[in-house]
Amino acid sequence: MNRIASLLFTYLVIAIIVVSFAAANDTSSNNNNNGNGNGDGDGDGNNREEEEEEVRVPVIDLGPWLLEKTKTKTNNDKTLLTEEQRNIIQLIRKACKEVGFFQITGVIDSDDDQDLFQRTWDASREFFDLSTNEKLLHQTADSSKYPYGYERTETLTKGKMIDNEDDNDDETSSSRQQLADLKETFAVGPPDENGSGMPARQWIDSSSNISIQDFRNSLEAYYLRMEDLALIVLEIFAWALEESPSFFENKMDHHMSALRLVHYYPLLEQQQQQQQQQQQHSLTTTTTQNNESSIRLIRAGAHTDYGALTILATQKNGLEVLLRDNTNTNNNTNSDDKNASDSSEVKQRWFPVPLVPGSLIVNLGDLMQRWTNDEWVSTMHRVVMPSTEAHERRYSMAYFVNINGDTPIEPLKCCRGGGGGDDDSTKYKVITAGEHLMAKHLASMGISADEKEDDIESTVNSEL
């Protein structure tokens, strides 16, 4: 276990940057105790096309499941489930197959949960309000030994900042890249006692402006709450995958999950001037899907997550998912979609994920897609924001679920074509979750995405 964990340290140093894009669903906060704002979007919601887009990511109430949680966890007989529980399983199965994203409600309704969320949001803001010098004291001196703590990144993503732009426009390419991914993060790994093999958490008392103990207490309590919620979601996944309800429990007893706070700080006056220059140099002024004229800044470039799933708390709209476009392709306003799609036959476009008060966003990662033999999907997503909001602070909290590193990842029985366990009906060889993450790390280090998976796994095995 320690050998796998040590090999993953290098991966995590880079993955902590790449995977944190998922956490960047734009967030700032005004007046919501459960951490989800007032639900106001960038448009008035009256456009029929926009309404059609919003239903692409379903909202599922887990309240009925939680009421019967004790019964469902100890009994494998699906006939004893309530009708509401069976409906929840069906809805989540459908979402995982078709979208890879869904929103859950009914899980943070209690006063205790709302208080916990508010305390964690407050702790996040207080920390990021510290001076840069103070925050840098929380930055690890040796990321190979401690891949968590404070991280300030600025030019991590080479990608499109706005729709309808020409990538060959050298005149503004530099400023575009500088404006992408302006954010800072703070991350913690698994609890010291969970046996993951990851390094112990580090808490540094760097300032008299905040109580590091309160900061620590808030993050640790939030981490544990998300850990419990992840196990509930995984239990429903097990039912949906026709496995035992406890299937994932022994795969999460020394997991390597990470909690990441993300802050998109306001753009400076000089950066706002660069925005205006970009708008002047663009071939056309970008028209957003709600018909607003504005430069659409991509604050987190298009990506998928590496692990099993992600649970995201957000207070602002901005998250978009890349899905099949069932509308008339002539109405597609996002010219960069054709670059994000690998198929000329299947048209895709970016669909906004609307903010739903009292909800959390769940998305599948690449590991879950592999585990289900591509039956479930890890969907490309990004975060955009209009230039008119560039001066606003945005926050989010993402809990990345990474199962035990020594768990064998083999396509599940229900996802092998005929369901008979024929190896010929599986798309992937058996590797561990740790090897999967290492393969993702190697790919980020320069292995072509077009190379055969056998070559990637061969490289992984040589490293091990």
UniProtKB/TrEMBL annotation:
Ranges where the Fe2OG dioxygenase domain occurs: 254-403
Basic and acidic residues: bias regions: 335-346
Pfam families on file: 2OG-FeII_Oxy, DIOX_N
Compositionally biased tracts (Polar residues): 281-291
Stretches with biased composition (Low complexity): 325-334
GO molecular function, one term: metal ion binding
Signal peptide: 1-24
Entry superkingdom: Eukaryota
Alphabetical keyword list: Iron, Metal-binding, Oxidoreductase, Signal
Region (Disordered): 27-54, 157-176, 272-291, 325-346
InterPro entries: DIOX_N, IPNS-like_FE2OG_OXY, IPNS-like_sf, Iron_ascorbate_oxido_reductase, Oxoglu/Fe-dep_dioxygenase_dom
Family: Belongs to the iron/ascorbate-dependent oxidoreductase family.
Descriptive protein name: Clavaminate synthase-like protein
